[in-house]
Amino acid sequence: MPFPIEQVRAQFPALASGAVFFDNPGGTQVARHVVERMSDYLIRTNANHGGAFPTSAASDLVSDLAHAALADLLGARSPAEIVFGQNMTTLTFTLSRALGRLLAPGDEIIVTRLDHDANVSPWRLLAEDRGAVLKWVDFRPEDCTLDMADFESQISDRTKIVACGYASNAVGTINDIAAVVQMAHAVGALCYVDAVQYAPHGPIDVQALDCDFLACSAYKFFGPHVGILYGKYDLLDRLRAYKVRPADDRPPAKFETGTPNFEGQAGALGAIEYFEWLAQAVAPDPALSRRAALVGALTALQDYERGLGARLIAGLQSIPGLKIWGLTDAARLAQRVPTVSFTLAGWHPRRLAEALGAQGLYVWDGNYYAIAVTEKLGLEDQGGMLRVGLAHYNTPAEVDRLLDLLHGLARSPASP
Questions:
Q1: Contacts (Cβ under 8 Å, ≥6 apart) of 354
Q2: Radius of gyration of the chain (CA)
Q3: Does a structural domain hold residue 116?
Q4: Number of domains the chain is built from
Q5: 389 is a domain residue
């Protein structure tokens, strides 16, 4: 069955503006289910936790439903393994503080140069605070893939934490997380996965990966600005949270400090309900479990996006003076998400983004907080790269429009 692109686009009110949203790695547009869930929460159930009155009970139920929905999305064993927070960055800083109690001077933390700084600086600062050693795993500039031999050589019996991204928000590379987890566990280390960039583009199974922690953000998978952290229950239970004294000592509540963003949790639930809708639009089967429906929806959109990404990459390669940074081999597109970054001769990335934005095509420029990537590639002092990030509501016609504009711009270089 063909991917129901017109039905999909009808679920996203912002697309009616006519703008072309290729800024998706920075934040996707919001599905109608999300808007309805958040509106309903704020109108009918807006209350704080634990009150002896109906709206508080209704609010707590929405929160419980949201935890269960995200557990199904990530393949967790229990809703108690799902922690909501402000965003992935804040959750990572929070958890790094708790994990710091397990470190001694001379212990090692491993990060990669392919990661967003949200999965680098929390561990860098933790290493400084605890006298630990921060070790960097490199990547290959020719295709922007992690150097797995370097990864293996960096891990030792002093390694306690390994932090690695599921997919690069700068160049789209999908990392072999299962292999990284195995390497970490072989020396008794914990593995923390940043799945922010991967979550909108394919199914996740934390039990199959066996990762200890995995973080993502709902605003990257068509929901509101709220972060989600998965952690194995025994670890969340054992770790000491930095929290106020009356707060619950059990996970996940002990890590959800202060009054949670309940309307954000409602919106995250709406994002999961959108994926459930998509599963039925792609292959109707009312007997599917929610987990099966979510895997089916994300697999279907992954297949659609790979075709769209292949079209984009092939078209970009035909533009004189344009260089794609990352995987371009058509036989290896399953090893990347459709986040494609490039430079164009004669154009500063910011000027190029402005030229496209003036034509209604929204793209990002710079380093996208993946500063180690642009430093390694020698692009940081040149304005970074121009990033086009596709999502499953984008169309071949939008890709072709971008390519036509870039062909024209390549013939008329702007001053840097």
A1: none
A2: 21
A3: yes
A4: 2
A5: yes
